[in-house]
Amino acid sequence: MRTRLSVxxxxxxxxxxxxxxxxxxxxxxxxxxxAALTDAAKAFEAAGFGKVxxxxxxxxxxxxxxxxxxxxxxxxxxxxxxxxxLTAEKRSSPVALVARNRLCAxxxxxxxxxxxxxxxxxxxxxxxxxxxTPKAAGSAAIGVLRCFVSASSLRP
Length: 156
Prior knowledge:
By secondary structure, the protein is of the alpha/beta class. The chain is built from 7 helices and 3 strands; from the N terminus they run αβαβαβαααα.
C-alpha cells in the first residue's frame, strides 16, 4: 500500500512540477500520509523536479486553511470530503482518488490489543480512547465515533 501510494503521489507531484526546478511545490497532506508522501517528495526532489515543501496535519484543518486562502499546489486528504468541498468552492481542480486509508487501532505496549480483543478494549471504562479531531476530520472521524457508540450497545 505504501509503495503504491508513494508512486501515485509522485506522479501527481510530477504533473504539478514547476517550470523551473528551483521552484517549490507546496504540499498539504493528512498526517496519516506522512511516511508515503515523504518518500514521494524525496523521489521528486532526487529526480530534479524541484523542492517539496510539505505541511502535514488533520485534513479538515488543512482544507480550512486552503479555503481561507493558503497557497497549496497539492492537497492529499485522508478522505474525499475535504478535497470535494474545495472543488465545490472553486478552490481546486477536479479531485482524483489515488489511494485509500485504513482505520488502524494503536495501543500502548502491554495493553493486550489483538483483533479479537479490540472491542473489549474499546469498551473497557479504564481505557481512554482517542481519534482524530472529529470536526476537522469530517465524516470519517464521525463514522469512527458512531462505531464506538454502536459498539457500546453490544455489551451490557
